[in-house]
Structure formats: structure tokens, C-alpha cells
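@channel sequence for tomorrow's demo:
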Amino acid sequence: MDLCVFGGGLAMKIRKAVITAAGAQHASLPLQTLVDRAGEVRTALRLTLDEVVAAGVEEIALVIRPGQRESYSTAAGGHASRLVFFEQTHPRGYGDAILRAADFLSGEPFLHLVSDHLYLSRSDRLCAEQLVDAAVRHGCSVSAIQPTRENEIVHFGTVGGTPVSNEARLYEVSTVVEKPTPTVAEQKLIVAGQRAGHYLCLFGMHVLTPTVITILRAALAAAPANTGIDLSSSLNRLASTERYLALAVQGSRYNISEKYGLLIAQLAFGLSGVDRERILSELVHLLASGQPQSTGGGRLS
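C-alpha cells (generated this afternoon):
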């Protein structure tokens, strides 16, 4: 099912996606390779595109840094023909990157993913499929979220709200705060039913209505010259403008921009795939081999 009732009762298909990959620290990450669950070598970009296409998306906008189109086309593999590229010259933040694809979207709701996260489903459907299904059923913006420990929330946008009656893992969003401190989270972002010390943090994946583009445009116009805009602030505004939900998807996100992020993502994919036994065997061998440990001063003990 790929039609949703949106914007005055019009049935609309979620057939477009926007992937942002123009951040100075993140631009090369989608070009990295790892082995997927089936044992096949894939670029991180290819894994993200597989996720998007499985959700029913037909056309994909990729927002990149200038001069990277050829590298990304190659990394996309068989999905290259679906891509439309937008270069973010004179960048003004994450929200500005999404706006570069505004004309491509033509007023349609869209799936949005960040390029520095990889997703691993614990369901028979991929994470993006779960999210699109929720947006289709409810006819509104839905952000994917993941319960996250308090000590990690400074790295993520975090939502506050209330559980939706008779809907597992679904929440009405009232507040979104970008990278809150634990004190701010305790004051504004506690959600009923969560484990102590856990908050609902953004997953790097959203289905968004055109209202978000309107809000982002207003935010960019109001921002001082040469300053950037984020997405979380506009999502917070969205929550007071129209119905906005969050879904705790059955899956995990892996931020490959973090230290050891790509390694951890690779282990997660490998340990849930066809090469699980081989990887476990290699890990046991590595741990048992007594590899020398660094003393912290550049010498080996």
C-alpha cells in the first residue's frame, strides 16, 4: 500500500526520497564498503538506496558536495538511474541541504534519510518500509525513532510526546529538541512507558509532508546571513502546526560517522547474516591471540 490521504483528502503516493550527503565530515562515508547480511560487498550508499527502493520509492534526490556526482553514481550501482543530484554550494546547514531538493519534490510528501546512518531491521520488513507504512496509514509526517540511553542523547535530536492509543511503538510528537542535555531532556522530553534513563531519539529517517519545506524556507529566510539551519527546529514547529507522529521502528541505526562506527555497523550486519559463524570464529581467535595492547603513549606493551 503506497497511497496516503493527505492535504484535504487527496490520495498521494510517497514516491520520492531525499538523501543528504553534503556535510563536510560525512561526504565520503557513503562511498565506504562493507559486507551485507547476504555476504555481498556493498557501498554504504548502495545499502541506503536498497532501503529506500524497498519502501516503494521511485525517484531519489541526492544532495552532495560539488564535484562528487561521478563517485556517487558509481557507488549507487544499479540504482544510479533513479538518482537526481543537487549540489549544496554555499551550504547553510542540514535544513538548507533538504531545501536544495524542494523543486524536485513538487509539493509531494517524501521519504528522507541521512547518508551517515545504516539501518538494520529486526522485522521481516526493512526500517524504511515500516516507516512508510505508518505514514500511509495515518496520512501525516512520521519520524523514525529509537529508544536511546541518556548518556547518548547529546548526539541526536530527541522527541517528547505521548503514546498513541492502541498503536504499538507510535507516539504523538509535541516537542523536538536537537542534541539536548540530560537536564533539558528530563524537563521536556520524558515519554510515558520508557525505561528509566531512556529517551526517544531520531533515527535519521523520516516521511515528511510539504509543510516541512514551507517551515524550512521560513527558517532559512529568518536566519542571520551566513548561518545555518537544522531540521529539528523545523520538526518542533511542525508538531505545533499539524499532526506529527514518531514510530519506534523494529530495527537499529548505526552512525558510521562516529569513531569505529563503520566497524560496529559491519559487525552488526555480519553477525545477523550468513557469515555469522565465520565472524564469531574470527573474533574468538582475535581475542585469544593475545594481541599487544597500547599503553597510551605510542608504545606497545
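heads up for whoever presents: The first helix runs from residue 44 to 54.
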